[in-house]
Q: What sequence folds into this?
């Protein structure tokens, strides 16, 4: 794999299943990735993530809890349309739509973004994931490899790693 790739976990560990992305990144801590791949937990730092996404990556895989109407623990691979990002950017929000809207406002260039989302259970103010989402963390680890192979490596090979 050539080109720079960001694997970013987002979420709030103090809000139950919203901490899914952070937990996945913690589990990746011991894994070896090529030097061109950066793995980082952004937590609730949306503005930081927006600026990072605009700093010359070829692709980004964002790991986040989502609400799409499925059963808790359901995994999704989502290709967001960043050009369609709308709304008012909120520097205090980690909602990915707000991150994308902030990038659009700054007229920054974003890499190709793939979201690995996990359907969260009912939101609660406490630490720790529900059983369904905890189980999804294990299933996410090989899914990251699949996404890197299917979406990222193919795109980088087509562009020669130069976007």
A:
């Amino acid at each position: 794999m050539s080109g720079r790739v960001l694997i970013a976990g987002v979420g709030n560990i103090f809000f139950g299943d919203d901490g899914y992305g952070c937990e996945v990144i913690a589990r990746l801590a011991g894994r070896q990735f090529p030097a061109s791949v950066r793995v980082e937990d952004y937590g609730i730092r949306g503005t930081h993530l927006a600026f990072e996404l605009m700093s010359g990556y070829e692709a980004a895989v964002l790991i986040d809890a989502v609400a799409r109407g499925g059963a808790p623990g359901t995994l999704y691979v989502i290709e967001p349309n960043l050009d369609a990002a709308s709304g008012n950017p909120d520097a205090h929000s980690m909602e990915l739509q707000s991150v994308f809207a902030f990038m659009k406002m700054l007229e920054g260039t974003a890499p190709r973004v793939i979201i690995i989302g996990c359907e969260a259970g009912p939101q609660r103010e406490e630490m720790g994931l529900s059983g369904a989402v905890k189980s999804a963390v294990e299933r996410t680890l090989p899914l990251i490899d699949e996404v890197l192979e299917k979406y990222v490596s193919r795109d980088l090979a087509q562009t020669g790693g130069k976007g």
Remarks:
- The chain is about 35% helix and 20% strand.
- The chain has one domain: 5-159.
- The first helix runs from residue 20 to 28.
- The domain at 5-159 is CATH 3.40.50.1450 (Rossmann fold).
